[in-house]
Amino acid sequence: MDRKIIITAAVFGMLSIIFGAFGAHALKAVLSPEQLTSFETGVRYQMYHAFFLFFVASRKELSLKTLKVIYNLVLGGVLLFSGSIFLLTTKNVTTIDFKIIGFVTPIGGFLLIFAWLVLLTAFFKKKS
């Protein structure tokens, strides 16, 4: 499981850098300042959760079940939260109006929050 988490974290981190550079250079000319800010939010949260996954993979005191739950929540959360933001903010470039998927952004955010909550409760339940 640790290997899978670290690979996912590395992919999320690498894609964050790629998307961040793409946003800063290629999209800057075609997105409004508000769209660019939203795009950057998606990039930032994706990178935060890449680091979060690295941290989780390093914690030997977490059970396999807890690791799997956190991993799946973060994977789904990043895909829904950041992914939907990327699609919604680039509608000028793709000419596809992804407004219909706008409802998944808060669902993704909830999954990310819940992943942190699972980590928090796992450490509260641990005996020192």
From TrEMBL:
Which domain of life does the UniProt lineage start with? Bacteria
Q: How does it sit in the membrane?
A: Multi-pass membrane protein
Q: Which InterPro entries match?
A: DUF423
TM segment ranges: 69-88, 100-124
Its subcellular locations are: Membrane
- What's a single GO CC term here? plasma membrane
Report keywords, A-Z.
Membrane, Transmembrane, Transmembrane helix
Q: State the family named in the UniProt similarity comment for this chain.
A: Belongs to the UPF0382 family.
Descriptive protein name: DUF423 domain-containing protein
User: Source species, please?
Assistant: Flavobacterium cheongpyeongense
